Amino acid sequence: MREELRQLCKQMRLAHVMNIYDQVPFEHPTQFLHAVLSAERSSREQGKIRRLLQKARFTQIKTFEGYSFESVSLPESVTIEELKRGSFVERKENVILLGAVGTGKTHLATAIGVEACKQGKNVRFYRVAELVSILQTKFQWASSHYPKH
Question: The domain containing residue 22 runs over which residues?
Fold first, then answer.
């Protein structure tokens, strides 16, 4: 019966049910089903976040926890909470971080990106030097493949 259950879960793409179904206390079948399906959903969400974080290619995972906004100045139209929520993304606005070495730009950029991943958004992290290098390579390739008129 256990193997049949495993196969059913596999066919239905319920990858996490078998890991937790025998650990769920319940008094009523509805309570059991709710707990098992909620755990499946939670496991899927956590897996998605892990995949998004990996796809983003952060050099290190940094969060807002412990980040000091003391040396950060924001435009009057932007609050720290909006920055944390990433609401600028929905408004199709850019955020440019400027400052001297060691002022926390990379930490802040990574924390914003990590939070966006937690919200299910696709993110790709680039350092400026890396992005410039990629753009130069693309430009050189395009220049060699598309003659000027």
Answer: 2-56
